[in-house]
Each structure stands twice: as structure tokens, then as C-alpha cells.
């Protein structure tokens, strides 16, 4: 396998693994360590955790596809991976910080994360269409 491609796959695997670790660790922290202290902000924390896991699963699927058949991952799919990963940081991260601290200042970041998720879904659809559904030209 091409060493550059192999390094790219490694970056996807590391990123997905870190996001997965954080999803479980932060979720457990919220469920066991915050339930009594954040009160009415617990649903905000749970929303961040839910979206973190949803988009982590998509990142895992893209990473797996990239690891098994890297030639099938179009530029659109690759970009969608990074939009999902960044969206997790902005959307879920800002909700975590707000739920834990009560700081509303990061509220402006949350919609940006949501927009990154939406653009990621559009690019994922475009990439799937390009890579798997469009007729191949000879």
C-alpha cells in the first residue's frame, strides 16, 4: 500500500479512536458525575452526547471504508469525515461546556457545529453518489 495513503488511514483511525474514547468517557462522566450537580442542564449534556455518538458512528464507517477500500473514498466523503469530527468538537463540545459550567458564551459555537454536521451529510451523500452510484466511465 502507498505509504502516504497508509499515513492518511492512520490519521482517520487515530481521530476516530480519540473521538470514540471521548464519547464514552464524557458520557460516563455525565451519567455518573454530573447528574446531581447540573440539574436542569442535564438534557443539554445528553443532547451533546447523543450527537457525538451519532457522528462518531459515521466517522467509524468512513474510517473502515477508507481502511478496506481507500480508492472508493472520494474527496467529498473525506471532507465529510472532517466536517463530522469538527462538528463534534463544536456542537457537542460547546453543549458539554455549557452543561457543566453554565457559561452561555459558547452558545454561538453550537449552531456552527450543527452547520458543519449538515454540510457533512450533504457531502457524504454527494460522495456516495460519486463513488458508488454513478456509472463508471471507461
UniProtKB/TrEMBL annotation:
InterPro entries xref list: DUF423 (IPR006696)
Hydrolase recorded as keyword: no
Coiled coil: none
Pfam families (alphabetical): DUF423
Main location: membrane
Keyword Transmembrane helix in record: yes
Localization per record: Membrane
Membrane-spanning residues: 12-31, 51-68, 80-99, 105-128
Membrane topology: Multi-pass membrane protein
Signal peptide: none
Keyword annotations from UniProtKB, A to Z: Membrane, Transmembrane, Transmembrane helix
Similarity section: Belongs to the UPF0382 family.
Name this protein carries in UniProt: DUF423 domain-containing protein
